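In the design runs reported in the main text, the only information available to the sequence generator was the tokenized backbone. The following block is the verbatim input for one such run; it is reproduced so that readers can re-run the procedure and compare outputs position by position.
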């Protein structure tokens, strides 16, 4: 190793110098603990998640078509080619469905759950390389118990897969910076980038932007280009990416460049009001990064002050760059905050290790705010006099089922309070992790069994099947989406957009048609007397009707 390379590695390792070099066993134990804790949190609900939205259903239906048609790319949903997102997630569902021969809710969620474990493990590894094994362990635990991260381990969308590969890319980038002479790490960095892109799109390229900014600020433009240069890495990135881009461009999808590459990927930042996510994103972040968001004032102030330290600067950029990129998007969605979650977990863990023992006024204030918050939540649930406020916030009244939620909430607040007031960061991290793990697992079960309306989708499909009698494709009037009904029905709904088409469809097929009550009231005066309402039902706080065709003139009920 040359003298400059040795100096570079010593510079990057300064934050973890107090840890012995031979702690590989401790690092391995931390990785295993993070993997086990994350698995215990995200896996209990595997297979119990209903395919509840059209965004989720399109990947599940794509996977089902892959199995049924034995094709990877030439997949149609309701007669149209699916080209909105890369196919990696759908392929993963199909691959995990092969042993059973069919796509299920469990095989749809399994890639997401595995990606969550993967992301937590690589966050642990990255924290260990940036700082020390304890920071890595705490970072992985903080990520696993972040509310937004956990929630998206339960949602059937590819965002978690993007974060998993992006976190792996961040780790391999740092390994390449530690040892510039070993170009294997740079190659692995580009492979992870390509897979992150494969999962959803350009959001997966954020680690490249983070790395480029860090290199430029630390070493200048020439060093940035030299360190990122890897012919083998570029070649593998291109090969992996072209395996899906070329088929999408050539197999009957002439609008792909305009509707996806331009409108969804580029114009989201160049047109339509960049930064529209800022007001909503600020509010969403409070819940998304809970409970660790309480530490944000002390964590971020310390990180900004220490930004000249290379390791802290990199951790800060892994949080700030994705966050800014997401908030600047005109197509902002809450789930996009997931890209910043590993970076925030790294900063929390670094602060707890480096400054958590400091008994500062700010830390004590946060400790009391946590206690006050759980006390207010308890009062809101328990006191009958607050029923009107509780109703406006959609908070259920106190019941036996909610008592464990309140107890774990108090355990969380007391752990944070004792750890921050006493300068004992390990107590705060371990206590919050343990109570949040229990709260997330129990809360998910409680929501699914007591408060969720996801079961309405299979019930709607079952009601349509009753009137369809398996004879064909039911219709849906003036409603886009509802692909989740397609999944449970086992065949696509036929979209109807005009009154004339409605009457022609009913007369020709005698299949039921789903319509909103409002749409039906708008046209019922000029309908054929043979169109009748078969059933009225409520879905997601909206009123719907199922329309049918009468064999003779009939008035609607």
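Verbatim output:
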């Amino acid at each position: 190793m040359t003298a400059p390379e040795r100096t570079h590695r010593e510079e990057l390792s300064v934050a973890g110098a107090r840890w012995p070099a031979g702690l590989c066993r401790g690092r391995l134990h931390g990785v295993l603990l993070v993997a086990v804790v994350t698995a215990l949190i995200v896996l209990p609900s595997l297979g119990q998640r209903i395919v509840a939205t059209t965004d989720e259903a399109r990947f599940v239906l794509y996977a089902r078509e892959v199995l049924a048609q034995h094709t990877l790319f030439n997949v149609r949903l309701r007669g149209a080619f699916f080209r909105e997102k890369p196919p990696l997630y759908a392929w993963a569902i199909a691959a995990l469905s092969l042993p059973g021969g069919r796509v299920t809710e469990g095989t749809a969620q399994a890639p997401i759950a595995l990606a969550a474990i993967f992301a937590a493990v690589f966050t642990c590894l990255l924290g260990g390389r940036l700082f020390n094994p304890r920071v890595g362990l705490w970072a992985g635990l903080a990520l696993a118990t972040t509310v937004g991260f956990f929630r998206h381990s339960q949602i059937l969308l590819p965002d978690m897969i993007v974060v998993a590969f992006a976190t792996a890319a961040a780790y391999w980038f740092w390994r390449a910076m530690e040892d510039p002479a070993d170009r294997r790490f740079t190659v692995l960095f580009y492979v992870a980038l390509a897979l992150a892109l494969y999962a959803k799109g350009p959001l997966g390229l954020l680690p490249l932007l983070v790395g480029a900014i860090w290199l430029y600020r630390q070493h200048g433009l020439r060093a940035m280009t030299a360190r990122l240069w890897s012919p083998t890495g570029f070649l593998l990135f291109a090969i992996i990416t072209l395996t899906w881009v070329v088929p999408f461009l050539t197999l009957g999808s002439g609008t792909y460049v305009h509707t996806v590459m331009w409108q969804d990927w580029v114009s989201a930042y160049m047109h339509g009001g960049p930064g529209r996510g800022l007001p909503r994103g600020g509010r969403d972040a409070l819940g998304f990064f809970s409970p660790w968001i309480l530490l944000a004032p002390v964590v971020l102030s310390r990180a900004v002050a220490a930004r000249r330290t290379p390791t802290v600067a990199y951790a800060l950029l892994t949080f700030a760059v994705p966050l800014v990129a997401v908030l600047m998007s005109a197509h902002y969605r809450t789930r996009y905050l997931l890209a910043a979650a590993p970076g925030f977990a790294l900063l929390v863990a670094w602060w707890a290790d480096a400054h958590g023992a400091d008994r500062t006024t700010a830390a004590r204030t946060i400790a009391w705010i946590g206690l006050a918050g759980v006390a207010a939540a308890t009062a809101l649930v328990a006191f009958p006099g607050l029923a009107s406020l509780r109703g406006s916030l959609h908070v259920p009244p106190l019941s036996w089922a909610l008592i464990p939620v309140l107890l774990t909430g108090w355990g969380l607040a007391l752990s944070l309070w004792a750890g921050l007031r006493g300068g004992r960061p390990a107590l705060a991290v371990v206590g919050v992790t343990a109570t949040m793990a229990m709260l997330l697992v129990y809360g998910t079960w409680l929501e699914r069994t007591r408060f969720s309306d996801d079961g309405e989708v299979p019930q709607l499909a079952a009601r349509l099947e009753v009137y369809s009698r398996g004879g064909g494709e039911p219709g849906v009037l003036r409603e886009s989406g509802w692909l989740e009904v397609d999944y449970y029905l086992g065949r696509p709904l036929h979209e109807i957009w005009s009154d004339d088409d409605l009457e022609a469809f009913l007369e020709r097929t005698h299949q039921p048609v789903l319509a909103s009550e409002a749409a039906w009231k708008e046209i019922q005066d000029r309908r054929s007397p043979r169109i009748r309402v078969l059933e009225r039902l409520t879905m997601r706080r909206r009123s719907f009707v199922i329309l049918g065709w009468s064999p003779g003139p009939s008035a609607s009920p």
